[in-house]
Write a structure and sequence with these properties.
The protein is of the alpha/beta class. 37% of the residues lie in helices and 12% in strands. It has one domain: Aminopeptidase. The chain is globular and about 35 Å long.
């Protein structure tokens, strides 16, 4: 669901890149930590962008929340504010999901700071089943980008 969330945020006016396993099952073995991600097409696209927001899946199946990390503190806080305004709970990331490594793909744009969103399984399931909530989520992130002037 992270690809669909990302693509909905991007809409027709922002760039979108997806790294997706295509195996019938067992794609978990393809996981690459964000600070080790070095696929050339992704790096080329990110290095040209002022704003980089990555969407990841967090495995919590009990609670609905979005963890917000990354080095772009102003944008991160605005995304939190906008998501909370439409009813999504946000929280600080746990250790290992903070997105603060300068080599993290979200921090490799022109500004050298970005935002990493970790959507819990419950949030992703909600967004899959309730398309209006997916649109609200994406519009909240897009509003945050516009409020900050990008």
């Amino acid at each position: 669901m992270t690809a669909e969330i990302s693509e909905t945020i991007a809409g027709t006016d922002y760039s979108f890149y997806n790294f997706e396993g295509l195996k019938a099952d067992g794609n978990g073995v393809l996981h690459i930590e964000s600070h080790l991600f070095d696929e050339p097409r992704a790096l080329n696209a990110v290095e040209k962008a002022d704003v980089v927001i990555t969407v990841h899946g967090q495995m919590d199946q009990k609670d609905e929340f979005v963890m917000t990390g990354g080095l772009h503190t102003d944008l991160r806080l605005e995304i939190e504010r906008q998501l909370q305004a439409v009813g999504f709970r946000t929280r600080l990331p746990t250790e290992g999901l903070m997105g603060t490594d300068p080599r993290n793909i979200c921090n490799r744009g022109r500004l050298k700071q970005g935002v990493q969103l970790e959507a819990s399984r419950k949030v992703r399931d909600l967004l899959r089943s309730e398309r209006d909530r997916l649109r609200e989520f994406a519009e909240a992130v897009r509003r945050a980008i516009k409020v900050k002037g990008w």
